[in-house]
Amino acid sequence: MANGLRWISTAYDMGYTFTLCEGIGPHDLLVRMGAEPHRLQDLSDDAVAELQMRPEVGHLNDLDFLDWEDESLVSRLTEGGFLSHPEAIVRAGAVPGWAYAVESITSRASAHLAALSQGTRAYTVFRSVNGEHEVGYAVDGQVLAYYEPVVRHTAEPDERRVPGFEYSGEEPLDVAFLRFLEIEHGIHVSWENFQAPLPTAAFA
After folding, report:
1. 112 Cβ neighbours under 8 A, 6+ residues apart
2. Phi, psi (rounded to 5 degrees) for 152
3. Are 60 and 68 in contact (CB under 8 A)?
4. In this structure, what are the phi and psi dihedrals at residue 135, rounded to the nearest 5 degrees?
5. pLDDT at 1
6. Which residues pair with 124 in a beta bridge?
7. Nearest-5° angle of CA 201, CA 202, CA 203?
8. Count of CB atoms within 10 A of residue 13's CB?
9. Partners of 42 in the beta sheet?
10. Is the pTM of this model over 0.90?
11. DSSP class of residue 170?
12. CA nearest 171: which of 133, 116, 129, 114?
């Protein structure tokens, strides 16, 4: 399972958030983040990138993925909030036993970590455009850890940390955390599945 998740760290120059929730589906994950089910659309990673880079004064025909004469699709995207320059766009997919979410630039998941973990557990890792990092862990509606790990030389068992994760400093923090999730839970997200249309929510 070489590079089962770590490739995600190279996909977003402007920063990203990757989140895992155990035992739920992609639609449920997005709803727990505040999405309305009827507003979800299946969008590819490239389509989301176009939407996020769309200029304020841009026309719909500037979007390569969208046939602006397709009134039904334009209507669905409008109703879903995708064409009104949303604050965050989050895509969600599934691997056996887990749902995952990816958001470019933003970190909406961190504010909804407790809700994401209701009745289960959730992990999240955030890297900003400036290289700042944070990781989080929540179980059954309670955030047990959300922090920026540093290299440690002594154990501090009473500190709120992600169980099992120790940062050595040998690689970027987000890469180390993705590696930890790969090894700890045997998770692999393929590039092909990731690029394909996935359930997606826009948040104002």
Report:
1. 32, 33, 34
2. -120, 145
3. yes
4. -125, 155
5. 41
6. 19, 136
7. 120
8. 9
9. 199
10. yes
11. S
12. 133
